[in-house]
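User: Hi! I'm working on a homework problem where we have to compare a predicted structure to a textbook description. Could you give me the structure for the chain below?
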Amino acid sequence: MKKLFLIICCTSALFSCRKLDQPNTREFTEEAYWRDEQDALDALASCYENMSNDFYYFGNEALSDNAYVAGTGFSGVSLVAGGSYDPANQRVSSEWSYRYGAIRKCHIVLENIDKVPVINETLKRRIIAEARFIRAYSYFELTDWFGDVPFFTTLISVDESRSIARTAQSSVLDFILDELSDIRSDLPVNTQYAEKDRGRITRGAAIALSAKVRLKKGEWGEVKKECELLVNSTENGTYGLLGNYANLFTVANEFNNEVILDLQYGGGRTFGTQRSFLPQTVALLRSTLVPTQDLVDDYIMMNGKAIRESGSGYNENDPYVNRDPRFRATILHHGSTITDFEGQVQTILTQPGSVPSTNSVDDQGASPTGYYFRKHYDPTTPNYNSGLNLPMIRYAEVLLMYAEAMTELNEMNADIWNKTIRALRIRAGFTDAGATVFPTATQPQMRAIVRRERRSELAFESVRAFDIRRWKISDEVMNRPVRGIKVSSGAFNKDPDGYIIVESRRFEDPKHYLWPVPTFERDQNKNLGQNPDWQ
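Assistant: Happy to help. Predicted structure tokens:
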């Protein structure tokens, strides 16, 4: 769908252009705008533009125990992650306004498409379904962060926006599920779209998002049913696992049948965020968004055992040997190699005292944890601006949701294991039976296995913050210090085992499980109220 985003480049705010070389001249809300099918498609493109962005996609990782942002980047996510924020925080405020901006764009499409005098009825129904999906997704994001939120399904006036109260989270989630069910018949499956429309919302995306909403609600039987619509049938789309995990995150393999929903780039829409998570010798910029030692520690050994488990073979003095292959595909560590934008192979040295020292933890511009992200690195583009699509829901996540639901229902068995966890591990490169054969495990043990698998498979894909909050473990994992590599020299703050302590975090239960209603919004609307323990 690169052509769609050639149009999007012309549709910032609420403006569009009929041809790519013409200036913006009309707003979507003007009566004269809705002349033909292309006008409707252009207006819909603006909705897609507001569905998400790379800033949230990457920055959200630092709202979890997977990553850390040095300084105030990504709208102050470190303040949120550290528990030192208030309702005026920029990240909190921007989430609210961004999502309601998307909802408004969707309402403009939904309320004006009937003005188009001649439009193919099948296309019209599809456009409406796509707009309803994006609206549902936006409401889901709002309820996930804020709980109860203002809810409306038509365009509202400024005066109405200043008096509307919040609707219960449960009611909004019920609406989302109804929408995602209702629009399915009007959405094509992934194999029915023409090449120019690749990347548009599909029936499979509606099913997968519905499963994710039910995952949030803990409706395990319904999660099972939704996932089986994609796992056990091709009626709703043809999906599978790409053969090589690392290749998933490359321009060359975009639009593969593992991707169910992604954030579209290219065709003039690019992002330079990768410069923040790469070594500064590669990106020529300070490294600010970096992995944590806690994430590194959760990657299992090739024999399927956790690193602290008896018989794992883990060696703390040689910690990166015989680890889950997805670790190397996701993270750069001391001794990793990477090909830079000039085509030169660099060896990344992060231990203090390394020569050269540019990427070591004792350099002020380097990663303070001693790790960097490799996943999503796109060396194919000049000036560091990438057109790489970013996966929002993959078939792998459907398999993981299925495995989680079957575990919580206490119905996990060898057949389900082989379809889900084993399939993911075989694709990743595991060969040891200890990692691939269905284990004898209690339900709590299987739960730990599935959750760890989800973390390893989906690391740096904007999922972890969602998971730790729905599992209600944020008050555990986000009250730990951000740790970096183990060092034996240098003036670092370290834990008793010698691992760098980068920052202490604080998470209050129940307060921090919901973000506060932003100060600006409450100043405009006295009926919004506030979430528990916030002022």
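For your comparison, note the following. Residues 121-146 form the longest helix (26 residues). Residues 2-26 have pLDDT under 50 and may be disordered. Good luck with the assignment!
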